[in-house]
């Protein structure tokens, strides 16, 4: 049980490590013969799950302080992979596991067991990989080897499997052509392409990211690289600054491919004026106004933006709510329920969430075992009569294990 009291926050923090960047680096390093060094990996549960997965896929893993030494190019020693609660890990590793010539079963626990996996099946089958699921849900079993060829990917529900396919296909013996329909979360694919480039692998992508040509038989070159700071986790800190104080965040790449760098645009739309001071991003409390923002391609920004909107005068309209159904919780429904319990005025109408800013009472909420729900309610409650209280706050470990300590460190600094 944690109680986050209302009140101001002030101070300087380092952004947590991006689990999205880390997971891509780990899967790529597992395919690179030789040793890659991955620096500042953080300790997110999703990152840890992915590390276990590449180990079981045959990578050598050594942890040396703040550096992961990954020896890639090995063969799987086991036919079963535990992806924890990470949707990306399961969907992307399904493609990577299909490179191997043995049946591999991918599963996990908690909310992951209720998340759809259909988008993985058709393209893998088109590429000659036998695969099965339990009624479209995990566990999923794949039986390679993936040889390359032609496939159509449905990108409407998730971009994550496409990232996995783009990581795996360069290691297939034959060339591939992948057509993608209805891609959402496109910036996550650009991050994958950046990682491929860093490992010396080439993939030809159409500007709209609807067609990819992947030469087969390529060799990944090992890298020595630091994991980027996480714009998704930092978004909560920046919103905390905008609603309740003065927060400076270090370690963010201003030119990052991360989708959630779009928090900058949203804060500007809300009148918050985030400012770079050297390499540090500073967000002070601002006179916030309601704003309109399309979060279809950066769905993880929905929770922090909903928290921001609770304190923005007038009406905020957020687009992309229908993409939130199959995240760690049914996030749009959960946001409406829990922020309403705190006294906010919001509703979902089709693909839109509408939030009327105003005073917040705060109180006890249920984070629905969803890290972004827990962080959003905690931050919204900073400017409320009673703050936010919740059980199950350890769910933040999925992406940002130090969140509540970091938030506490901002107290009393004003
Ligand atoms: O590729 C990734 O690392 C992710 C892609 C997004 O998912 P979708 O592509 O399913 O929208 C995002 O919501 C998730 O947290 C991480
Ligand atoms: C949806 C998320 O992650 P994943 O799909 O990888 O579990 C998230 O981190 O919000």
Automatic annotation (TrEMBL):
Amino-acid positions noted as binding phosphoenolpyruvate in the UniProt annotation, renumbered to this chain: 19, 87, 115, 160, 331, 372, 398
GO molecular function: 3-phosphoshikimate 1-carboxyvinyltransferase activity
Active site (catalytic residues): 300
InterPro entries: Enolpyruvate_Tfrase_dom, Enolpyruvate_Tfrase_sf, EPSP_synthase, RNA3'P_cycl/enolpyr_Trfase_a/b
DNA-binding among keywords: no
Compartments (UniProt record): Cytoplasm
Keyword Repeat (UniProt): no
Keywords attached to this entry: Amino-acid biosynthesis, Aromatic amino acid biosynthesis, Cytoplasm, Transferase
Primary enzyme class: transferase
Domain Enolpyruvate transferase positions: 6-407
BP terms from Gene Ontology: amino acid biosynthetic process; aromatic amino acid family biosynthetic process; chorismate biosynthetic process
Entry's EC annotation: 2.5.1.19
GO cellular component, one term: cytoplasm
Pfam family, one: EPSP_synthase
Protein family according to the UniProt entry: Belongs to the EPSP synthase family.
Stored PANTHER family: AROM/DEHYDROQUINATE SYNTHASE (PTHR21090), PENTAFUNCTIONAL AROM POLYPEPTIDE (PTHR21090:SF5)
Stored NCBIfam families: aroA (TIGR01356)
Subunit structure: Monomer.
Function statement: Catalyzes the transfer of the enolpyruvyl moiety of phosphoenolpyruvate (PEP) to the 5-hydroxyl of shikimate-3-phosphate (S3P) to produce enolpyruvyl shikimate-3-phosphate and inorganic phosphate.
Protein name (database record): 3-phosphoshikimate 1-carboxyvinyltransferase
Species the sequence originates in: Mesoterricola silvestris
């Amino acid at each position: 049980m944690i109680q986050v009291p209302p009140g101001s926050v002030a101070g300087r923090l380092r952004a947590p490590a991006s689990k999205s960047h880390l997971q891509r680096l780990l899967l790529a390093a597992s395919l690179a013969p030789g040793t890659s060094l991955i620096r500042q990996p953080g300790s997110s549960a999703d990152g840890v799950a992915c590390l276990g997965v590449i180990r079981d896929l045959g990578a050598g893993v050594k942890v040396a302080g703040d550096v992961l030494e990954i020896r890639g190019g090995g063969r799987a020693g086991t036919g079963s992979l535990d992806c924890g609660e990470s949707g990306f890990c399961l969907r992307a590793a399904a493609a990577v596991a299909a490179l191997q010539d043995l049946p591999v079963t991918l599963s996990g626990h908690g909310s992951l067991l209720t998340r759809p996996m259909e988008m993985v099946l058709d393209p893998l089958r088109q590429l000659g990989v036998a695969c099965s699921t339990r009624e479209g849900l995990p566990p999923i079993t794949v039986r390679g080897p993936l040889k390359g060829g032609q496939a159509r990917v449905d990108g409407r529900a998730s971009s994550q499997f496409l990232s996995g396919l783009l990581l795996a296909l360069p290691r297939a013996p034959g060339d591939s052509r992948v057509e993608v329909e209805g891609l959402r979360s496109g910036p996550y694919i650009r991050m994958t392409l950046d990682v491929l480039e860093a490992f010396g692998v080439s993939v030809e992508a159409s500007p709209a990211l609807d067609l990819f040509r992947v030469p087969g038989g390529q060799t990944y070159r090992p890298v020595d690289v630091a994991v980027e700071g996480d714009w998704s986790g930092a978004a909560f800190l920046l919103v905390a600054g905008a609603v309740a104080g003065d927060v400076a965040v270090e370690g963010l790449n201003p030119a990052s491919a991360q989708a959630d760098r779009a928090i900058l645009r949203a804060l500007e739309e809300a009148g918050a004026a985030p400012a770079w001071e050297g390499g540090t991003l500073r967000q002070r409390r601002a006179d916030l106004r309601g704003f309109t923002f399309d979060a279809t391609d950066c769905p993880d920004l929905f929770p922090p933006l909903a928290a921001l909107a609770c304190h923005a005068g007038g009406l905020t309209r957020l687009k992309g709510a229908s993409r939130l159904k199959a995240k760690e919780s049914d996030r749009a429904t959960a946001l409406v329920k829990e922020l309403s319990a705190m006294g906010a005025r919001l509703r979902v109408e089709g693909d839109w969430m509408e939030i009327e800013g105003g005073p917040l009472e705060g109180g006890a909420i249920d984070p629905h075992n969803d890290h972004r729900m827990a962080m959003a309610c905690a931050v919204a409650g900073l400017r409320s009569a009673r703050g936010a209280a919740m059980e199950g706050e350890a769910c933040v470990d999925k992406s940002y294990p130090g969140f509540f300590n970091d938030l506490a460190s901002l107290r009393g600094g004003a």
